[in-house]
Amino acid sequence: MAWSDSDGGASLGLEPQQLALLSQDYPRFSDAEYSRRHQLLAQAMHKHDCDYLLVVTDHRAGNAPQWVTGWPGTAEAYVIFKWGEQMVMHMEWHNHHPLAQRITPHVDVRWGEHQGIALTIAELKRRGARRVGVIGPLVVNKFKQLEAHFEIVLMDADYARMRMIKSAEEIDWLRVGAALSDAGLRALIQHTRPGLHERELAAIVESAYLPYGGTTMIHYIGVTSMNQPHLYVPPQYASRRLVQSGDIVSCELSAFWWDYPGQVLRTFTVDAEPSALYQDLHDTAEAVFQAVTARVRPGCTMPEVLAATALIEERGYTVCDDLMHGFGGGYFQPIVGTRSRMAGPLPEMTLAENMTVVVQPNVTTAQADRSVRAGVQVGELIHVTANGFKSLHRVPHGLQRAGAIL
Questions:
Q1: What range defines the domain where residue 183 resides?
Q2: Each residue of 260-304: pLDDT tens digit?
Q3: Separation CA 109–CA 370 (nearest Å)
Q4: What is the pLDDT of residues 50-103, one digit of tens each?
Q5: Between the CA of residue 223 and those of 98, 199, 250, 295, what are the distances in Å?
Q6: Which residue, 87, 119, 154, sits at the end of a domain?
């Protein structure tokens, strides 16, 4: 089976400004959006009395250079930032250099020559840097090299706060990521059948969004018998376990639109009606999703969120994951569990307008019940609005059946 983008993305259900992103070779935020981000960085630097900022991707980890410049940082990217000065980025590898120049036209992009941190230090010294803020991961030996020349201030927490509140443009990009994730889910439900194994299911998911420029963040897909379940949460790596009639499939899918993913979680059966246990697990999860999202609004407290999950324990169940977490550019607070599986202390914060969070009451049987450990996946990425919430996804809720066309 194969998919294409011959419809230009019309089937994804996107608004015109979001469809326009799909038509660009390398989509880019507006200059005004980058200016907004750079102002936030400058304010954080002023708070910490930093004269320069180093924004890092190292060993393929760290997304801050992409947020600041547009370049995803395929291997290494060391961005020198100061308000009012042209940014300089030393990056690897040499064969990636032409594309980095094309994607970041306002940045002085330089090949790192396999000594990018040394060249970055030399440039900072040339500019007279004294106190340098750092956002992103640096392996220890590189951090020590930097620390030998400058006073260092770690600013990852500042960066996380900047990314928790989304701009209107970022919401558009997240809607694209959500639509691509939905496309993967629709394809998975429609094309799952007995005889396929989990790896083939993963290929079905990816094939639905790759033609549009989407890439994979995660596709966790779990397949088990409803009568004799051997798992209660979808595994992070696919196996060769074959789909059979009477199975239940649960999944958590996130397709990226560049650095902006959706996240959608659903459960469906194969050639069978749901068993009484799985129906009750799913009904509980759906009821809790509705209870939590009914409370979502600016000013909502974490005890309010926690109280909305009480039905899970009342029915003798628990959860296998964080029930709510910030999402979109990272895994952010608020991170909230339930009474039976807390996610650490409740965050002392409230929801704010233009946060984006995942609500996912992935309900399971109690951990003490070793005879039958079953679970479902339910939830999605939502946008906290002035008056409540809006889902960023369009796929319907409900316990679906393989072969359905959504």
A1: 168-401
A2: 999 999 999 999 999 999 999 999 999 999 999 999 999 999 999
A3: 56
A4: 999 999 999 999 999 999 999 999 999 999 999 999 999 999 999 999 999 999
A5: 43, 11, 7, 33
A6: 154
